[in-house]
Design goal:
Strand content of chain A: under 5%
Distance between the termini of chain A: 17 Å
Oligomer: heterodimer
Strand content of chain B: 25-35%
Mean pLDDT of chain A: 88
Largest sheet of chain B: 14 strands, mixed
Mean pLDDT of chain B: 91
Number of helices of chain A: 4
Helix content of chain B: 25-40%
Structural class of chain A: mainly alpha
Shape of chain B: globular
Largest sheet of chain A: none
Number of helices of chain B: 16
Low-confidence stretches of chain B: none
Radius of gyration of chain B: 23 Å
Largest interface: A-B, 21 and 20 residues
Structural class of chain B: alpha/beta
Helix content of chain A: 40-55%
């Protein structure tokens, strides 16, 4: 298992988003700054899946007031949020 | 008077007033009217026949509103489409109603090719930005191209005569597709009179006026969302669109920032707000009322809502797409002593509780809820048999069982049809069962609705696997996710050795529900 770094977080979260929400759209690129909402990648149920994945993988709880686009709505925002929580 | 006259009249009365807010975008009634008219000119120039169907696959936005009115003003029938549907279902709807044109939100471009491949009647595709298609038969255009030369027509404010629903023609203007009990979507045909009468009735009992504004979290393609759109255009109020309910705190910030006076939701919205957010601690000083429809909300949740916000008016409402949609509402001042009710008929509508022989039952006796009034749909598109089951002598047999108390308040006691109501969506058990049975590992499948504190009802699948096969719930859910819209994916999956059956071989779902409940 590789040590936790911003780059491993980025790689793992990108992979999760692509595997979970982009089935059948392999020709579409996912830029790290793309808004999941605007691109129609993640819906309300998807957000719950995403937060469950993060909580399980990175072993912290996401508070209700942390459930906001600034933290969760792009790969870039996710990396910043998770890295901050893990003190990276 | 036709449906687009609601916008025309509002634009005359309040030309410079804000009609829609969508994050940092705002549009006045005058601007909505201008864009509508520019689109009407474009649509009228296309080689289409009056009454042709035009699909509208757009997320809630300012564009949706003027497209909705323009299609109808140009003399066509608008077909709003659920944007969460898979491409095959969208194509089914377009083919079923023989749609000639489709307004398509580019954010759904991943589904586009599959939709086009299975929609043989489509000739025109209009999107908010340029799209690549491999289909040579389809002419494309973009909204920016069409609207590039339109500048606001300055409209001088004036008063307008009052609307009278009776003046509206009973002519087809919109088809809203809804899940049928067979799993095949049914196109509910609504006329100008259906929509206008129900809009004015709702404006009346909610006491809506031009100083009202509503936060719109419900999609406009859903008839309850459509009702928000029409009522607020009719009264000259404002629609504050926010499509981010997955981030409820963001929605509540928008409500406060935009000083909305109304919040309309389905049971799951209220459950999430009450249980998982700062909602109970906020005061929303500008908010006047809540409305709830889209399935039964548990009485204890209603009580929590009114206890948390005793100064706000809470309207519990009932209806269905076939009733355009509103049939009953409970006056807020009666809610506490009539907890569990769906209320009394909305203005202009009559409700009877009838037995299987077609006679009205006595107060307190159970029977089917039958809706009578100008809101009752014209019928189902191309489905005369389904139509004849619910529409008889202009009366709408709702399929819901209820009783009326001595004061005329109606209480729902069950449903005749096998439909599961998941967070406001009507889901056919049969459709999910059919998809499950397409899985190579599954030999038998039965799908039920189970009580759920958030969704109202959640989907439970009971499965029998083929000999020698093994599967996990997550695997089945993933499979369903690939085949079905997200809200149709079973929340619970259980594996059984066999399903209880009647002698006829049909699954005994009552018995199954009992045994699943016992095993939980």
């Amino acid at each position: 298992m590789s040590a936790l770094s911003k780059e491993t977080i980025r790689r793992d979260l990108r992979q999760f988003i692509i595997d979970s929400f982009m089935v059948g759209s392999e020709d579409e690129t996912l830029n790290d700054t793309d808004s999941f909402l605007e691109k129609g990648i993640v819906d309300s149920t998807g957000v719950l899946e995403l937060t469950s994945f993060i909580e399980e993988k990175y072993a912290f709880t996401i508070a209700d007031d942390e459930m906001k686009p600034d933290n969760l709505d792009s790969v870039e925002n996710l990396v910043r949020f998770v890295s901050g929580k893990k003190g990276l | 008077m036709k449906i687009h006259d609601l916008l025309t009249q509002a634009a005359r009365r309040f030309p410079r007033k804000i009609a829609v807010v969508h994050q940092d975008q705002r549009a006045t009634f005058e601007e909505l009217q201008t864009f509508t008219d520019a689109l009407v000119d474009y649509l009228k120039a296309l080689p289409l026949q009056p009454g042709d169907r035009i699909g509208l696959l757009f997320e809630n936005s300012i564009e949706y509103i003027y497209l909705f009115f323009a299609i109808q003003k140009a003399g066509f029938v608008v077909v709003p489409i659920d944007t969460s549907l898979k491409a095959d279902k969208i194509a089914y709807i377009l083919a079923d109603c023989d749609a000639r044109a489709l307004f398509f939100h580019a954010k759904f471009r991943r589904s586009l090719q599959e939709i086009l491949e299975h929609s043989p009647s489509l000739r025109f595709l209009i999107s908010d930005s340029a799209l690549k298609t491999n289909s040579g038969n389809i002419q494309t255009a973009t909204l920016p191209e069409i609207l590039s030369n339109s500048s606001p027509n300055r409209i001088a404010p004036e008063t307008s005569p009052e609307f009278r629903p009776v003046d509206a023609p009973h002519e087809l203007t919109a088809i809203f597709y809804t899940s049928g009990s067979t799993g095949i979507p049914k196109g509910v045909m609504l006329s100008h009179r259906n929509l206008i009468s129900n809009t004015l009735s709702t404006v009346e009992y909610l006491k809506l006026a031009e100083n009202d504004s509503v936060i719109v979290i419900l999609p406009f393609y859903y008839i309850y969302g459509n009702s928000l759109l029409l009522t607020h255009i009719a009264c000259g109020g404002s629609l504050v669109i926010d499509n981010r309910f997955m981030y409820p705190e963001v929605i509540m910030d928008t409500m406060e920032k935009e000083k909305v006076t109304g919040f309309s939701g389905v049971p799951s919205n209220f459950m999430i707000l009450l249980n998982n957010t700062s909602f109970p601690q906020r005061r929303f000083p500008d908010l006047r009322y809540f409305t709830q429809a889209g399935g039964a909300m548990a009485p204890e949740v209603v009580r929590r809502l009114i206890d948390t916000f005793p100064q706000k008016e809470t309207y519990i409402m009932y209806g269905q797409t076939e009733a355009a949609p509103r049939a009953t509402f409970c006056p807020p001042e009666r809610l506490r002593d009539k907890l569990g009710t769906i209320g009394i008929p909305v203005p202009g509508v009559e409700i009877k509780i009838m037995n299987d022989e077609g006679f009205e039952v006595a107060d307190g006796e159970p029977g089917e809820i039958v809706i009578i009034g100008p809101n009752v749909m014209m019928g189902y598109w191309n489905q005369p048999e389904e139509q004849s089951q619910v529409l008889r002598d202009g009366r709408l047999f709702s399929g819901d069982l209820g009783r009326k108390d001595k004061d005329g308040f109606i209480f729902i006691i069950g449903r005749k049809k096998e439909i599961i109501k998941v967070g406001g969506n009507r889901v056919s058990a049969k459709e999910i069962e059919e998809r499950l049975l397409e899985n190579d590992k599954i030999s038998e499948a039965a799908v039920l609705g189970v009580e759920d504190p958030i969704l109202g009802e959640a989907i439970q699948a009971a499965l029998v696997l083929k000999p020698g096969q093994a599967a996990e719930a997550k695997e089945i859910q993933k499979y369903c996710r690939e085949k079905l819209a997200e809200h149709k994916v079973p929340k619970y999956v259980q594996f059984l050795k066999e399903l209880p059956k009647y002698q006829s071989g049909k699954v005994n779902k009552l018995e199954l529900a009992k045994s699943l409940k016992a095993s939980n």
